[in-house]
Amino acid sequence: MIKKTPTVALLSTALLLITTSCGTKLRPLTADLVKAEPQPLEAVGGQVPITVHLTFPAKWFPKDAQLTIVPVLRYKGGEKWGAGAGFQGEKVLGNERVVRYAVGSNSSVNFTIPYQPAMQRSELFLSFKGKQGSRVVSLPELKVADGVLATEALATLAGVTPIIAPDAFQKVINEAYDANIMFQIQQSNVRSSELTKEEVTEWQYTVQNANETPNQRVSVEVQAYASPDGGKELNEKLSASREKNTTSVLKGKFRREKLGDVSIDAHYTAQD
Do residue 199 and residue 86 come from a single domain? Predict the structure, then answer.
């Protein structure tokens, strides 16, 4: 199993924080809500058939949302995309599968991707294209499978001496996610309007989701800056105050969201 360690950084010009709920906003699907079969995938007749089981919890899929799920198999030297499958909220006029907000839905979707020999060492991702009302919603991809068995091709390899080469396996993969909080000139108070903007709320969701995932560890870095607000002495005090206030707000949010075990590493720079 590949163990991911996301480093969730807050750049404070502030770089800041994590906020509260997503409400009825279209959110990313997480690994516990998606299952791909078979594991590993298998080439059959020159194709890679894939069945994806999806769970949309109650009150998860907004009534005005649309979601298209597209499989993509990535391997050394290329990638292959399958046809997409669409879902829609109950208020959307369309012909896709309807997910009702109050009760959610369980659904299975079949995909097929043309097989290439290089796919034996590959990764299957699901790409999500979201829309809510007239607004396009950016959602992260989700990895759901590793490798493709090619039983048909293996039958022709009798007598071939295998060569063992080093691979790119990493026990720990570090990932970083940033969000920016802006301060007014020569001010160090954290404004509520900065905490509720989209990039900060998305960052909060990433922290919460990563912290709840068993094979991930989360650490948060706060980097505060003060430039070009004034001279070096002013910037020194201002950046230190911004770092202190940012860290204090962040710790309070973490306590309320039951994220008290997430470590925070704070720094400040007088002039960047």
Answer: no
